[in-house]
Write a structure and sequence with these properties.
The complex is a heterodimer of chains A (136) and B (668). By secondary structure, chain A is an all-alpha fold. In chain A, 52% of the residues lie in helices and 3% in strands. Chain A is built from seven helices and two strands. Classes of the chains: A mainly alpha (136), B mainly beta (668).
Chain lengths: 136, 668
């Protein structure tokens, strides 16, 4: 069987589409997951980062310009890992990866990134492929 | 434990003659959070002294790790000791616990599962409990739960007292002039205090850097009958029309503004029947355009009649606060002699490094306090108070205001870099107001002491025999900057923006974040060159102030510099022995020694704050008599007591990732 050049081009394009990293604009978490994350946020995070997620005395904002400027171009996986390893700041390392993923789903929701059909997965390799970025 | 109780009381009467006449924690016990109702943190015990303190060893350890659904690390508790038994709050659920003071054996624990209101506790820190006795067989422990309920427990059994409130519990969210008080809006981190059979209760609210709304719950001070739990009085820290002080709230701001609670531990004078209440600022830490006016009784030291809640006197230490300079530590009672005149005094140390000293009966300042003009705000809608109060004596115990002379200059290069950083900020004297970010090209206003500096809840300790006050403080300039609040997130108009210094700064940018470990983990990054502090050391200090003369006696650094600073390549060869850890030393004073420690470094502290060192200090000179490493950082204020002629010092410890525990020290 012979491939015509235009067929090869098609295959390359399809391949690129599959490999292209997702972004937070692709509906990477579910509403239910964000609600779970909000509950965890209220008990674990709100006392420092505030109900508004705008930050506190020594706690950075988790929404809007300051947050997005800082995380622009970074992966959701990195944000999850940072949360898991350093939060809550007085006793880090006690939140499960699942809890951290839910928390980040809530943070994404609070920043206006759209919810989708499926939940944000816990798999680090998958999370590392999801980029935080401004709307293209 | 009954045997213990009888034996200890008998011993203390035999062995410590004349102690009843002295101030401080009496009879070898520790009945109040601050030792005595006057919050002196003083005990006349002398079994541990300069001659034997080097022999101090750990007698027992009590682990809090399994109290509460998750471990607690930053345990700010100070146990009470009555009749040989320690009583304290423990764990992330704030259980009340009784422990044998000689062995550390757990005697009872009380656990209240509050569901969502507990999970959403506005403050998870806990500092301890209050105690009351009728002098006979009715002995009670008073707990304020994370969800803001007042619980009375039988001190012997830990069982709630059924005749108190509803089955031992009083609802504290009622009576706050709000139709609805939601979980997570109000609570308390400090214990109540019982004066003249009245339980006086303060309140803590969420930090107000960027509140969702100018409308919040007011942190009124309340008094409850210790026998029945009935609310006897409410003192409105935000007065209603017709009440004195209402005129200091612009427009209708008294109606919606909240906070103005007393979150620090409280103080009282049983003999006078007065409670001394340190009040915090109103809603909106750095923007007051929603609450124009002086805002009484915010940032005020209040003297209330404990039986009626009637205001005897007050003094406002900051008018129209724009700096988050809450009164953050318990007022300290001191009987002093000034120019030959005996004065029953009360001293209040502050975040902005002042010591305000008053006649505690009349409220008259012991030394003049002057209203001086201060810089005015450029923020639209803000109206700064034209003047602020400055005590003429004692001198401030930490640096106030910042100029280029205050910046680190260890090497010419560091000095140059520090000057370049500082040039991005507005600098000025104390009471320099916050600015809107990028005003005149400046990221923010550089404030010293910042709201995370100066003194804070560990406060000070007073030796009643000498009238010397010991206070610990932190020197850390930091920036205040405002940004326009997104109306969908907050109706405040302006909210804080982490001092402007994180704006648009990627986490990987060179110099963007400190090089030290933990900079991303909730530790407040340093502002200075290469992740170093911006201001010259000492970064943490202890100051001794003679309240009879108002003069400073000595000042020492709080240990040496943080390891991360000492090991920084740019600091090679520089002597940092007296640089001090950027944390407040928790202080305990006894007849023989002052005790301090590196501190926890777990809340609002700079990189490298905290450490394991516990110290015995010469009271007269500040010389370190002895220092020893504890298993972790000291997170609470130490206390001391006597059992079987043996003096113990007990202190709460913990560290990031190291669950909390109590450590008891004694001479074996």
């Amino acid at each position: 069987m012979r491939f015509a050049p235009h067929n090869v081009l098609c295959l390359i394009l399809v391949g690129s589409a599959i490999a292209a990293p997702r972004s937070v604009w692709n509906g990477v978490y579910s509403k239910e997951q964000a609600a779970r994350g909000q509950k965890a946020y209220n008990s674990q995070c709100a006392r420092c980062h505030g109900d508004t997620l705008l930050g506190g005395e020594s706690s950075p904002p988790l929404v809007d310009r300051d947050f997005l400027d800082k995380w622009n171009g970074k992966s959701v996986g990195r944000l999850v890992e940072l949360t898991r390893k350093t939060m809550p700041s007085d006793g880090p390392g006690k939140l499960s990866r699942r809890q951290c993923v839910d928390l980040i789903a809530f943070v994404l929701s609070a920043n206006g990134f759209p919810a989708g059909e499926s939940e944000l997965e816990s798999d680090a390799a998958v999370l590392d492929e999801i980029l935080i970025q401004p709307k293209q | 434990m009954r045997f213990h109780h009888v034996r200890i009381v008998a011993l203390s009467i035999l062995l410590i003659p004349g102690m009843r006449a002295q101030k401080g924690a009496a009879n070898g016990e520790w009945r109040f959070y601050g030792g005595d109702a006057g919050s002196t943190k003083y005990s006349p015990l002398d079994r541990i002294d300069a001659s034997n303190v080097k022999q101090l060893e750990i007698a027992w350890r009590w682990k809090a790790e399994n109290f509460g659904p998750r471990p607690d690390y930053n345990w700010e508790t100070t146990p009470l000791m009555i009749g040989g038994v320690l009583y304290f709050t423990a764990g992330s659920r704030r259980d009340a616990v009784a422990v044998d003071g000689a062995t550390g054996e757990t005697l009872w624990m009380y656990r209240l599962d509050e569901g969502e209101r507990g999970d959403r506790a506005v403050r998870t820190q806990n500092r301890g409990l209050a105690y009351w006795t009728d002098g006979k067989s009715d002995n009670r422990i008073l707990l304020i739960s994370p969800g803001f309920q007042l619980v009375a427990l039988n001190a012997r059994t830990g069982v709630p007292i059924t005749g108190f409130g509803k089955n031992g519990i009083v609802e504290l969210t009622e009576g706050l002039d709000r139709d609805v008080v939601k979980p997570g809006q109000i609570g308390s981190s400090s214990p109540a205090i019982v004066i003249r059979d009245v339980v006086v209760v303060g309140a803590a609210l969420q930090a107000g850097s960027a509140p969702a709304s100018k409308t919040n719950v007011p942190g009124y001070v309340r008094g409850y009958d210790v026998r029945t739990g009935k609310r006897i009085w409410t003192f409105r820290t935000i007065p209603h029309p017709g009440e004195p002080g209402n005129e200091t709230w612009g427009k209708d701001s008294w109606q919606y503004t909240g906070n103005t609670g007393a979150w620090a531990p409280l103080t009282g004078d049983e003999e006078l029947g007065y409670a001394y209440i340190p009040v915090e600022m109103p809603t909106g830490d750095f923007f007051g355009g929603t609450r124009l006016g002086d805002n009484l009784f915010a940032d005020s030291l209040l003297c209330l009649d404990a039986r009626t809640g009637k205001r005897i006197w007050h003094f406002q230490t900051v008018h129209h606060d724009l700096w988050d300079w809450d009164l953050s530590s318990p007022p300290i009672l001191a009987d002093i002699t000034v120019d030959g005149k005996r004065i029953k005094a009360v001293a209040q140390v502050t975040k902005q490094a002042f010591t305000f000293v008053f006649d505690r009966i009349t409220g008259r300042p012991v030394w003049p306090i002057e209203e001086r003009p201060v810089p005015q705000s450029s923020v639209p809608g803000e109206r700064t108070s034209p003047t602020q109060p400055f005590p003429t004596k004692p001198a401030p115990f930490d640096r106030q205001g910042i100029t280029t002379d205050d910046l680190i200059d260890f090497t010419p290069q560091l000095k140059e870099e520090a000057l370049a950083i500082a040039a991005r900020y507005q600098m000025g004297p104390l009471f320099l107001p916050p600015i809107v970010r990028d005003t005149d090209g400046k990221l923010g206003a550089l404030i010293l002491p910042h709201h995370t500096g100066g003194a804070n809840w560990p406060g000070g300790a007073l030796d009643p025999e000498t009238g010397i006050l010991y206070v610990s403080s932190v020197t850390n300039p930091d920036s205040l900057a405002l940004v326009t609040a997104d109306p969908k997130r907050s109706d405040m108009g302006y909210v804080a923006s982490m001092g402007g210094r994180r704006a648009g700064r990627p986490i990987d940018a060179p110099g963007g974040m400190p090089q030290f470990s933990g900079g991303e983990g909730g530790v407040r990054p340093n502002m200075g060159p290469q992740g170093l502090p911006l201001a010259k050391p000492p970064w943490g200090r202890i100051t001794a102030i003679n309240l009879n003369t108002g003069d400073h006696v000595w000042m020492i650094a709080n240990g040496d510099a943080p390891e991360a600073v000492k090991n920084h390549p740019a600091m090679k060869g520089i002597d940092l022995r007296n640089a001090g850890k950027p944390e407040r030393s928790p202080l305990l004073v006894t007849k023989t020694l002052l005790f301090g420690a590196d501190g926890s470094g777990l809340f609002n502290a700079g990189p490298g704050a905290g450490g394991k060192m516990f110290r015995a200090i010469d009271k007269k000179t500040g010389a370190i008599v002895h220092e020893m490493a504890l298993p972790a950082s000291t997170t609470g204020v130490p206390m001391t007591y006597l059992i079987d002629d043996k003096q113990y010092i007990v202190v709460a410890t913990g560290a990031r990732g190291t669950p909390a525990e109590l450590v008891a020290l004694t001479i074996p």
